[in-house]
Amino acid sequence: MRNKLKRLIISHDLSHVLATKKKYSEPKIMHFNFDLKRDWYVYFSFRNPETGFLQRMDNIYCSKTLNKSERLEYLKKIKSNLSDMLKDGFNPFSANENIEESKSYSIDEAFKFALDLKKEVLSDVSYSNFKNRIKKFEAWLNENSFKKRDINSINKKVINTYLNEVLVKTSARNRDNTRTDILGVFQVLEDNDIIPVNILKGIKIIGSKPKKNKSYSSTQEKSIFEYMEANDQLMLLFVKFVSYNFLRPVEVCRLKVEDIDLVDKTIRLQTKTDDYKVKILPQILIDDLPDLRNFDKSSFLFGRTGFGQHWPATENNRRNEYSTKFKEIKDKFGLGVDYGLYSFRHTFISKLYNVFIKEITPDEAESKLMLITGHSTRKALQQYLREIDAYRPEDYSKHL
């Protein structure tokens, strides 16, 4: 009799009652007073449309491999997302039949997914360096019993262990660059709901002071130019593009014959993002150019062995080959690792700035120099000039 009465009451139209009652309880986190030996989870209740009573839904657990802060961060995100879904009208009773079990990704599957996406947005050189670091991390994981494991098995402690090894074996700079690249992969995975949270955000950058290429003295500059004039005209013009047009070596390697406009006296430069910018081509460079009518327009201005050649190699390899060629010249003058092709850019920017300030004010000199060097802000240019010691006072002997 009692059960029949209960069924009768439940089957009665309760819509007027339910309309005044909340459909769900706010999600909460259960962490058992931060006991890491137990399973932590998010729980909530939802009103059963048949009984009219709040019914406890299945718990949403986090992995036991996560530490305290990682578990809290993970479950807070679950709680926040679930709360938003409930506010937007999510009904677990009507959704149950349509929800598919989300795909779990192994480490190699997750890394491949992220690398495929990164390949579409990075330049060839950037992607090559990015991929190499991620593949080294994946190889290390495989060597440390993570092969075929789920991507969520990687926690903060695992990554810190790897980054510490990179630091000890290489440098602080390489450790930070490795952290940045792994963070990039995990951000792609978070954005695509493959992992709940990017744990790399909680790992700090160590910071390192990068070594700067020194500027050449006037004596060194003169000797090197005279040597290249007599022995290597190809290398000489390459260096002049760095010196007179203030290009980076990789930008010189990207130049094709068709990028040179002798009518408007400009060159078209390809940037990292495959966009183009136009810079003036000074007459001092035009005077030294070979006859470009003799070369295929689609060929590289600086080929492997001469001007105007097709060179089926990545820009990274092309730049490295020119760096190796210049090292042979540098070794003849006994110059160490502090000097390189990039040093010519520093040298000639310093020279140009100090010529300008003899004729115009420092502010005017900086404004004029920004148009030439391509620095986007005055502050960036000033910092660069300080780093290369371009600021030089006049001889103050008479004041002593």
How does this model look, in words?
- With 400 residues, this protein is mainly alpha-helical.
- It has 16 helices and ten strands.
- The strands form four sheets. The chain has a three-stranded antiparallel beta sheet with strand order 1-2-5, covered by helices on one side. Strands 6-7-8 form a three-stranded antiparallel beta sheet.
- Strand 9 and strand 10 form a beta hairpin.
- Helix 5 crosses helix 8 and helix 7 packs antiparallel against helix 8.
- The chain is elongated.
- It starts with a helix and ends in a 13-residue tail after the last helix.
Strands of the widest sheet, in order across it, are 1-2-5
Q: Would you identify the regions where 5 or more consecutive residues have pLDDT less than 50?
A: none
Instruction: Tell me the overall shape.
Output: elongated
How many strands appear in the DSSP assignment? 10
- Summarize the biggest pleated sheet: 3 strands, antiparallel
Q: State the end-to-end distance.
A: 114 Å
What is the compact description of this entry?
By secondary structure, this protein is mostly helical.
SSE layout:
Elements: H1 2-11, H2 15-18, E1 28-30, E2 41-43, E3 45-47, E4 54-56, E5 60-61, H3 68-87, H4 92-95, H5 107-119, H6 124-143, H7 156-169, H8 172-191, H9 218-231, H10 233-244, H11 249-254, E6 260-261, E7 266-270, E8 276-280, H12 283-286, E9 300-302, E10 307-309, H13 315-332, H14 342-356, H15 362-373, H16 378-387
Antiparallel strand pairs: 1-2, 2-5, 3-4, 6-7, 7-8, 9-10
